[in-house]
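Work package 3, deliverable 3.1, input record:
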Amino acid sequence: MSDIIQVKELTKIYGDNLAVDHISFDVKQGEVFGFLGPNGAGKTTTIRMMVGLTQPQSGTAIIDDHDVLKDSVEVKKTIGLVPETSNLYGELTAFKNLIYQAELYEVSKKERDIRALNLLEEFGLKEHQEKPFQALSRGLKRRLTIAAALVHNPKILFLDEPTTGLDVMSARGLRMLVRDLKKKGITIFLTTHYIPEAENLCDRIAVIVKGRIRVIDTPENIKAQVKETEVLEIGLDHMPEGLKDHFPSIEGVEKILIHENRMRFHTQKVDQITPAVIQILDKRGAKIKTINTLSPTLEDAFVKITGLDLELMRIDKPMKMGPE
Ligand SMILES: Nc1ncnc2c1ncn2[C@@H]1O[C@H](COP(=O)(O)OP(=O)(O)OP(=O)(O)O)[C@@H](O)[C@H]1O
Ligand SMILES: [Mg+2]
């Protein structure tokens, strides 16, 4: 399969902030490619450069054989963009928003109604077609925004944080929708800060931190980077203050992660560290409720590769959903 997206050394500087730092990657036709990174990593800026909404300081992006800098009109025909903040009109109905987008993309008058109605059907929005955008729930707003990005049958869809701010059910529905779009052959470039979402949806993931790509690979290959690591996971009845500080003295503990009442120890010597860990927990008055040895997850690999605290990836942003 040919590479439908080719990005080379793309760089964006805001003042003295190197927001995107010489990044290069290719996306294959039909692939779901994910940009995974914390807030401020440069995900949105990269999309904006790829679709011609902002100029890079240097570097190139070729989208379906068109250079974004030289041929942005052609690029816009090839792609659909679903920004973090919806670009639809609050007062217009779901149906009218689609028609309006179709007009912008110069879809013929004859085609517009057909496409809009098909998309409403396909996206489960038929019963809401006469409601103004602003009256829809968040999940439906996001769906309609995606539908609108598809009115001109683009080959590539850019989804910036498609599930941020959605409830669990809407987020799940949206992931199913992304899989359906992939089945139809649409190439999808998405950004996320949810590691499980990247793992679930993406054929390949680029991990981006502070404007730099740390790794690009399949979720399986990224996980394989920590295959010698084992994870000792201990669930506690409560998490005593400052508990984490008492373990680094144990030989063989590579990393400690804490989330709510669970501790995860990365090690290559799980049998050796377990008694020592239990002893310390006992001394600190923390009662053990569960104890398990696990295979490393993509989260563990992410921590090893980036050195970042997972809490950073769990921070959800305030909602921005366009007109409300
Ligand atoms: N228009 C702008 N002017 C100045 N600085 C900007 C602008 N847009 C982004 N930045 C800065 O560039 C960096 C990358 O921001 P960007 O929005 O691309 O990150 P992101 O990975 O999309 O983050 P998030 O997960 O919060 O959406 C940040 O330091 C941000 O403050
Ligand atoms: Mg962003």
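The mean pLDDT is 92.
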